């Protein structure tokens, strides 16, 4: 058997990835006719089993997504081996009576018959409704919205952020509650899927799963099935259908704690990246490139109220200069030539964008926590190197820019830790008396770690050594909502009592505000 890392297999796979980019561009060209004449599916199965979604809103457009997969746990998804036509509609009303845009596009087998429709020419700051059709089958109706005009007034913004949703660790009860919120956006910060095999009983869900899922993903077909399993959850699908999403990734979309720039992109990682694209509501700019990489980080402006910079903290990061995992800090971490979290190009893009920003609130969405977390007291030097602590030079480039460019109201939102933190961000964590220059909210997991008590007992004793950590909770599951206007930012920590039931309702565990031009969160 040829290894996934075998150079011949890697070259062959990446050659196929390169060919897909041109085909995908072609798939956006409107087709004549409709999907009514599309090929019949085996057994007449319903094609929209994975739901619908929208994302990347701009003042005049949005991306609409679906994937045709009548048999999602077969290698071909139950679809023909050819491109097929899919109809789409966008309307002003939920009943789809006032259709303002419509079209027919190709769903390609090379992209798992996924569809990414980039609709433009829309009105800013308004809701739209959308659906897809294949032959006689029609998807559910989704709701999306466009961003405010670029030079619009401060206005308001309501969004939720989430991360870490291991399907086997419990039900997505948090998404059931999130779907009932009045939100403009959802921001997902990574670990949308996990790279592990799935037990026969579905883990904590106690739901039978197909035999083909026993081993973890190592090729494209199996990665597609992993996404299909996660998207089989009705509450995740409903939340996608209710709001536009901004999406980044973390490590488990490939492998635990990996550093993307540490070694070449092998066939498995390229397959994981491609499957991620196929299953997320992102535009053609994120199509996999010939080398297997893809462009993920991006900027969303919410009028003049907020600038949201969505980071990719995995693809370009080097090996941590002072060691992996839990290890001592060292001088190399302060040398920007020894290690990087973002890579030179992305870091330059971020810092230039912060310097040029006219927004009242400047939001950095990052998969991992930026604040320092001392593990062994104020005189010790043990830290966790898979977070920004492992790349202090990269962190200081950002915090120094907050100060030098007088960036207004920097706010960081992060995931990954399966715990909740509210942090003051100092300009230099090596100087505890340096000014507080930003505020950070770290959300817990949707399900990962289930109902177990893991990080409360582990991190809890460390908090006393980290006075900049203003709040910590280690073992509740949930998500975070943020309400933003011109005067203040409000964060609500939304927690569910258990992930053993899909109907466990979220409640607000704690709330914080950040006042305009006053970094640091205040608990209500």
Structure description:
By secondary structure, this protein is an alpha+beta fold. 17% of the residues lie in helices and 27% in strands. The chain contains eight helices and 24 strands. It has a ten-stranded mixed β-sheet. It has a seven-stranded mixed β-sheet with strand order 12-13-15-17-19-18-20. α1 (7-27) packs parallel to α5, α3 (220-231) runs parallel beside α5 (267-278) and α6 runs parallel beside α7 (392-404). 53% of the residues are buried.
Shape: globular
Based on CA atoms alone, the radius of gyration comes out at 22 Å
Poorly predicted tracts of residues: 1-5
Number of strands: 24
- Termini Cα gap: 60 Å
Class based on secondary structure composition and strand pairing? alpha+beta
Give the % helix.
Answer: 10-25%
Mean pLDDT: 94
Oligomeric state of the chains present here: single chain
- Strands side by side in the biggest sheet: 5-2-1-11-10-9-21-22-23-24
Helix count equals 8
Beta-strand residue fraction: 25-35%
What characterizes the major β-sheet? 10 strands, mixed
Helix and strand topology:
Layout: H1 7-27, E1 52-58, E2 61-67, E3 84-91, E4 99-107, E5 114-119, E6 127-134, E7 137-138, E8 142-145, E9 157-162, H2 173-178, E10 185-188, H3 220-231, H4 234-242, E11 244-247, H5 267-278, E12 298-302, E13 306-310, E14 326-328, H6 344-356, E15 361-366, E16 382-384, H7 392-404, E17 410-414, E18 420-426, E19 436-442, H8 455-459, E20 469-473, E21 477-484, E22 488-496, E23 507-515, E24 518-523
What are the salient characteristics of this protein?
alpha+beta; single chain; 10-stranded mixed sheet; 24 strands
